[in-house]
Specification:
The protein is an alpha/beta fold. Helix content is 20%, strand content 17%. It folds into 2 domains: 188 residues, Rossmann fold (3-Layer(aba) Sandwich), CATH 3.40.50.150; 41 residues. It is built from 7 helices and 8 strands, in the order ββααβαβββαββααα. Strands 1-8-7-2-3-5-4-6 form an 8-stranded mixed sheet. The longest helix is centred in the last third of the chain and has 16 residues. The radius of gyration is 33 Å and the shape is elongated.
């Protein structure tokens, strides 16, 4: 399915939300929140965000999300830690009730917490997604084994992890709508001021914070079942190292996983496993025979036979 795109200008004139027959069953939204504390002051760390288009709370609440969603629908709403109450207000204004959340734990390349977060009281290294339900629709079966946490490296300013899509698609049904989108994604309708493929996303990627999966393996119980997105993530890491020459035994030692789990993840990643042991020697049929020049030795002269005499009786 080719995604559709509606552009949201940075002016006060906001483009209408897209519609679809029957309404969208799942909505992902990352509003451009306007930061201010209870006194109306803006944190020094947040002043640099002034160059990005933002919306105040009432503008966000006024978006007619309830009109473009199905009778039964799911909402995944990104909210900064400092604006949780405002996030609940928006969720309810759009016709949803809060039931749970998913936490994004921002990591460095080595797996440690990303210390570049901002805030008045703590350095925020997490960001929640509020999960709301409209009507009575439950999550899909894979959600029963999906943990409510995403652990990945931080990307450019405000860009959320791509792993969110795998999680949402495995837990909630389509049709899908992404509001305030940066990129068009296959199978999704995108609405936002950066969703056009020709529009460069704002912000920049800091060295060492280029996004993507953490380059460490999460510890797993021996028989722990993996969610689809985590299985895919681990498979990609293992496949990359396996194709670079690492053996299954080496990958098992590095990850702490059993050889069987490593083999299963590699096969899930579409890899044809190499044979065990050393490479077989080439046979006469498969390998050309190298001719070796043999130096002929001069023939030895036969020794003269001794003459024999008959003895007379």
């Amino acid at each position: 399915m080719t995604p559709t795109i509606d552009t949201l200008p940075q002016t006060a004139d906001i483009a209408p939300l897209p519609t679809i027959d029957g309404g969208f069953q799942t909505v992902l939204a990352d509003p451009p929140w306007r930061f201010a504390n209870r006194t109306g002051k803006v944190a020094p760390e947040h002043r640099r965000l002034d160059r990005y288009g933002t919306m105040d709370l009432e503008e966000i609440k006024a978006l007619p999300v309830g009109d473009v969603t199905a009778k039964n629908a799911h909402l995944y709403l990104w909210v900064p830690n400092a604006l949780l109450l405002e996030g609940i207000d928006v969720l309810q204004a759009w016709g949803f009730r809060y039931v749970s959340n998913v936490i994004w734990a921002k990591r460095r390349k080595d797996g440690g917490p990303d210390g570049r977060g901002v805030g008045f009281y703590f350095r925020n290294v997490t960001e929640p997604i509020l999960f709301g339900v409209k009507g009575s629709m439950r999550t899909l079966a894979p959600a029963r084994s999906t943990v409510n946490m995403i652990e990945t490296r931080k990307r450019e300013h405000s860009r959320k992890p791509d792993e969110q899509y795998d999680l949402i698609e495995s837990c909630s049904p389509g049709p899908y709508l992404e509001m305030f989108a940066r990129y068009a994604r296959p199978g999704w309708t995108a609405w936002g001021n950066e969703s056009d493929a020709e529009v460069e996303p704002k912000g920049r990627s800091h060295r060492g914070y280029a996004g993507g999966a953490i380059e460490t393996f999460p510890s797993l119980e021996p028989n722990e079942r993996l969610s689809p997105w985590l299985s895919d993530r681990l498979a990609r890491i293992l496949v990359e190292e396996y194709e670079a020459g690492a053996s299954i035994d080496q990958l098992a030692n590095e990850s702490g996983y059993s050889i069987q789990r490593v083999r299963s993840l590699l096969e899930a990643g579409g890899v044809t496993l190499r044979g065990r042991g050393r490479p077989k020697k080439a046979t006469a049929e498969s390998a050309p025979v190298k001719k070796v020049a043999v130096k002929k030795q001069p023939a030895k002269k036969a020794a003269p036979r001794k003459a024999t005499t008959k003895r007379s009786n």
